[in-house]
Amino acid sequence: MNMMNKANLQSAFVVTMTITASHVGVRNEPLAAAVLAGFAVSAATKSTYLQVVGAAPLQVDSRSTQRPLSKRRQALLQTAHGQALQVQALKDLGSALDAHGLAPLVALRMRCGLTQKALCEAAGLPQPHISRLENGKVPNPDGATLQRLAVAMGVSMDDVMTAIQQGAIA
């Protein structure tokens, strides 16, 4: 492997490590396991990666990758102040996504102060369907779905459809 490929792979390692670290949670698993869990590439690339960093192949478990909430955060979210902070954080993140033109339906949901779980419950739609809508995999949802989303988020059907269409284009 030449130096350029080795440098690029090491850069990919740092980026992957940074992105994956936020999804790892509080578990005490080896850093390489955390990185490989989020390193969605071919087996050949993984073997090259392992040779470069000198790591052994790891088995990745199928447990949920959702980060568990700390006891402090759980306690905070049970208070009105904690819930208000979470809503404000979602709104701020939604505004930032919108300002950069990223993930329009996600940005709309967050600007409304809703988590995906809260939107699912409010709209009466299954979470996988919301996820497909947010990822642009359902470019033309039916009118009932648009109505449910609009009512749950407190916006117009036009706002929801515009966000879905922009997401399908991206």
Walk me through this protein's architecture.
The chain has 170 residues and is mainly alpha-helical. The protein folds into two domains: 3-53, no CATH class; 80-169, 434 Repressor (Amino-terminal Domain), CATH 1.10.260. Helix content is 68%, strand content 0%. It is built from ten helices and no strands. The longest helix is centred in the N-terminal third of the chain and has 22 residues, at 3-24. The relative contact order is 0.08. InterPro entries: Cro/C1-type_HTH, Lambda_DNA-bd_dom_sf.
Low-confidence stretches: 1-64
- Helix and strand pattern: HHHHHHHHHH
Principal-axis shape: globular
Give the name of the CATH architecture of the largest domain. Orthogonal Bundle
